[in-house]
Amino acid sequence: MLDVTRLSKTYRTGDQALSDVSFSLPQGQVVGLIGPSGAGKSTLIRCINRLVAPTTGSVKLNGIELTTLNARDLRKARRRIGMIFQEYALVERLSVMENVLSGRLGYVPFWRSFTRRFPGHDIARAFQLLDRVGLAQHADKRADALSGGQRQRVGIARALEQDPELLLVDEPTASLDPRTSRQIMRLITEICRESGLPAIVNIHDVVLAQAFTDRIIGLRAGRIVFDGPPSALSHDVLTTIYGEEDWNAMRKGTAEQQDAEAEADAAMQVLAAQ
Ligand SMILES: Nc1ncnc2c1ncn2[C@@H]1O[C@H](COP(=O)(O)OP(=O)(O)OP(=O)(O)O)[C@@H](O)[C@H]1O
After folding, report:
1. Which domain holds residue 190?
2. How far is the CA of 14 from the centre of ligand 1 (A)?
3. Among 218, 214, 210, 216, CA closest to 246
4. Residues with CB under 6 A from ligand 1
5. What's the total number of domains in the chain?
6. Tens digit of pLDDT for each residue in 32-64?
7. Mean of pLDDT values over 219-240
8. Same domain as 269, residue 227
């Protein structure tokens, strides 16, 4: 369970990136965080894992206040927060298995991490996770031999290998094609539901967010202007979040993309039938 209460962040430049943000996230719930550029989405994610220090407010993960932890306790708390990144953040020259095991680095003693010797149960868990994300047969491949979608699956397995209590997911599909994006969003949401893991997904694509998340939080200029089920994201709500002009432009872009995908699907079917 994550409890964010009256969180605000003003950067030294004077930019007020978050104002009085409050919400709670129960086990297994996947929240899509949406909003225009500069709304404060990245700042919110960074304040939760304390890459950015909030100015005021509270962030509690399963009862532990994160905003006041000292460096040592913060390192421990961060083990419990799995991160999934837009650009995957894999070590390209290491194997898929080694990348997944790197999720345990916060737990193993320094000498073990240095020699990359992990306990048997960590390796068994990594195999299990690679199987879950559909990459069991790729364990020994180098990360740089994988496609974008496969890399993101490694990123997901690595985050889960941490045994997290919360997942923070930053634009997981921004570097992927539409079909792979849907597969990745489906995988993240299925895993969260089956393991009771709460997740916040910072996502630009409103259609994807609507299709796969349980709840949407809409930020605008650092404030929550919508918090509700995806089905309640009406045209009016989206106009409130993005503003008239940006939402109309986004809608047009989405419609064009869907047409292009439908055309590509039809072409594939014709080819397959030949
Ligand atoms: N390190 C920083 N120093 C000063 N101001 C910052 C810093 N990071 C972000 N900001 C400002 O805080 C506000 C929120 O930025 P943030 O990056 O959190 O928005 P965002 O919703 O994630 O945007 P995007 O979708 O473009 O990534 C913006 O006005 C931005 O200029």
Report:
1. 2-243
2. 12
3. 218
4. 11, 13, 15, 17, 35, 37-43
5. 2
6. 999 999 999 999 999 999 999 999 999 999 999
7. 95
8. no
